[in-house]
Write a structure and sequence with these properties.
The protein contains five helices and 19 strands. By secondary structure, the protein is of the alpha+beta class. The protein binds zinc ion.
Length: about 250
Amino acid sequence: MCCTASMGLLLAEEVQRRGLRDKIRLKKMIYGSERSSDSMRERIRDLLGLEAMYDIPGMTELYGPGTGLECSARRGIHYWADYYILEILDPDTLEPVEDGEVGEMVVTTLRKEGVPLIRYRTRDLTSIIPEPCKCGRIIPKHDRILGRSDDMFIFRAVNIYPGQIDSVLSEMSQIGSEFQVILDRTDHGMDNMTLRVERNINGNPVDDESLTDMVKKRIKERIMVTPLVEIVDYGGLPRSERKTRRVFDNREN
Ligand SMILES: [Zn+2]
């Protein structure tokens, strides 16, 4: 089965509701074309009893769905390097970033005749994964799409993308999938970043202190900044529609 992630979840929940799981015998799913968290992926997999799921990125301007495909090693997307050249550039300077560093995907098509693209800025953020893949294929890989370059904000001289925060939070089962980032400046000119997250559905407020410490530690390790953390009840933040506003910048520019 090949579908978008939200269609996959809808289908999985419907299969569960009607008790059809043992009748459908679905083994593998290719899903993509939108941001989906690891927790969403696990939920689809559990509900349908799938053996494996593979992420498929796509872009209308670039051959449509399927500009690459995840493999069984589940560590990045093998992209079709014989069909387009992929460069990862710093969105501000437009200089190439090091392999492994996050930047904007810039593509040049090799086989498109009608609407060829030359160093086309996709605004999608990812990084090159330079290490050989465990699956044995030699087709190069980029990481999953982390977000959009136009969503970037700067906090204490660090460029941060909401997708990076999402990626750290998705690994923590104790919190819900929604979050907000609030940026403030104190009277002394100091910038503060408050990360507002939800307890998960079974969470207990007595654990808030240790949860706060854990969120701070993980963010610090991966994004090099220390946020203030505010924990709210499950369902306390607006649910994601097509594009939920997550960053609230109250600093004066
Ligand atoms: Zn592979």
